[in-house]
Amino acid sequence: MNYNLLKLENQLCFPLYACSKEIIRKYKPFLDPLGLTYTQYITLLALWEEDNLTVKALGEKLYLDSGTLTPLLKKMETQKLIKRVRSADDERNVYIKLTEEGRVLKDKAAAVPEQIGKCISLSQEEVIFLHQTLYKILNQF
After folding, report:
1. Is the CB of residue 59 less than 8 Å from the CB of residue 103?
2. Where do the structural domains in the chain lie, given as residue ranges?
3. Residues 12-69: pLDDT tens digits?
4. Which residues make beta-bridge pairs with 82?
5. Which CATH class is domain 26-109?
6. Phi then psi for 12, rounded to 5 degrees?
7. What does the alpha-carbon distance between residue 20 and residue 28 come to, in Å, rounded to a whole number?
8. Are 95 and 84 in contact, with CB atoms under 8 Å apart?
9. SS3 per residue for the chain
10. Backbone angles phi, psi at 92, to 5 degrees
11. What is the spatial distance between Cα 66 and Cα 21, in angstroms, rounded to a whole number?
C-alpha cells in the first residue's frame, strides 16, 4: 500500500492548523493590553460591524458553536463589553449588544490589524490571494 497521502507534510489541514495557531499567538501581545483573548477580539470585530446580533447569527458569522460561544459571551458580559438581551417576542432568541465600553474599545483596537500585518512578511498580492483562497475553502462548508 502507498501511504504517501498519510504523511503529515502532504496534508492540507496541517499547515492551515499550524499557521492559524501561530498567527493567533502573534495577536497575544497586542490583545493583552486590551484585556482580550483572540476569540473575544473576533467577537468584537463582528459586533463592531453589526451590533445587536442574535447568539445564533453571531455563532454562524464566527463559525463557533453555542458550547464555545455561551461561556465566551458570559465572560465578555462580566467584563462589561457586551450585554445579552432576551427577545421580548421570542424568549429563545438572545441578542448581543455592545456596551459603551465595548464600543470605546474599537478605537483602542484600531491599530491591531496593522501591527499583525508587520509580523507577516507577505506582499499585498500574496495577502489578497491567500485571503481569497481561504474564503473559497471556508465557503464550501
Report:
1. no
2. 26-109, 111-141
3. 999 999 999 999 999 999 999 999 999 999 999 999 999 999 999 999 999 999 899 9
4. 98
5. mainly alpha
6. -70, -35
7. 13
8. yes
9. CCCHHHCHHHCCHHHHHHHHHHHHHHHHHHHHHHCCCHHHHHHHHHHHHCCCEEHHHHHHHHCCCHHHHHHHHHHHHHCCCEEEEECCCCCCCEEEEECHHHHHHHHHHCCHHHHHHHHCCCCHHHHHHHHHHHHHHHCCC
10. -75, -20
11. 22
Residue identified by cell 455592545 is 98
Query: Cell numbers of 121, please?
Result: 512578511
| Exposure class string for 27-41: b at 16+ Cβ within 10 A, else e | beebbeeeebbebbb
64-93: per-residue pLDDT in tens?
A: 998 999 999 999 999 999 999 998 888 889
